[in-house]
Design the sequence.
């Protein structure tokens, strides 16, 4: 049955940055498809996502920590395995952004953006990959890339560099792990109505310019990425490796 291919019943997942926004929508969507989900946020204010997952009859716990800290990456994987018994799905969603002209962009901001948006993706994926190979079962890793994996953007040099790196890292890991039954893919969301785009949506000129280029004529919502995430986390995508799937209202085709 084709619908069975999208079922995540009995699968155990970790979604970073799932206290709100895209991460929360993805975590709840995976639970609706049957998965148990460990949630994560930088602070302890994201427990409501876990509560919604438990209401669905799935197991869920919340762990806080800064993914820029190397230890956090390994702890998150270990806690997932300790609590759920395995890790079958990893969604690397945690991220942050800073906006400033390149001539004024600070070294501290550069270092933080690269650490959170790129280095942590490698560290967490590395720890998850090791565990998935050890388990000897199928695994799914989904990274959250961006339209700036393809384009340079404006006033976000570190973010564009990091997200470009996420796309290439996705392909590099897929090349190594596809033969080990681990699918590594990415989703590149378009302009979404989340905290990261508050400044853009609050600027009438920039918001108008962006909307004029989106064929769908609207900002995306967190719910718009859930279907793509479910596909890439399920057995329906077992022969998809190293792909960066845009969910952008048609932006890249314009």
Sequence:
């Amino acid at each position: 049955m084709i619908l069975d291919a999208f079922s995540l019943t009995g699968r155990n997942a970790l979604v970073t940055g799932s206290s709100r926004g895209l991460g929360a929508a993805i975590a709840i969507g995976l639970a609706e498809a049957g998965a148990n989900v460990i949630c994560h946020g930088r602070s302890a204010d994201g427990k409501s996502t876990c509560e919604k997952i438990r209401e669905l009859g799935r197991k869920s716990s919340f762990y806080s920590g800064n993914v820029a800290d190397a230890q956090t990456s390994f702890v998150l994987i270990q806690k997932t395995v300790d609590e759920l018994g395995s890790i079958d799905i990893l969604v690397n969603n945690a991220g942050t952004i800073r906006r400033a002209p390149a001539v004024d962009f600070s070294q501290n901001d550069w270092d933080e953006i690269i650490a959170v948006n790129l280095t942590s993706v490698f560290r967490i994926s590395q720890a998850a990959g090791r565990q998935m190979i050890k388990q000897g079962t199928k695994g799914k890793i989904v990274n959250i890339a961006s339209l700036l994996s393809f384009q340079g953007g404006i006033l976000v040099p570190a973010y564009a560099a990091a997200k470009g790196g996420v796309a290439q890292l996705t392909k590099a890991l897929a090349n190594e792990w596809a033969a080990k039954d681990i699918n590594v893919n990415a989703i590149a969301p378009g302009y979404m109505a989340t905290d990261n785009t508050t400044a853009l949506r609050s600027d009438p000129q920039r918001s108008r310019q962006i909307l004029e280029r989106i064929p769908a004529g609207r900002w995306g919502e967190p719910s718009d990425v859930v279907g793509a995430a479910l596909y890439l986390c399920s057995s329906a995508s077992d022969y998809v490796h190293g792909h960066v799937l845009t969910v952008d209202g048609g932006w890249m085709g314009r």
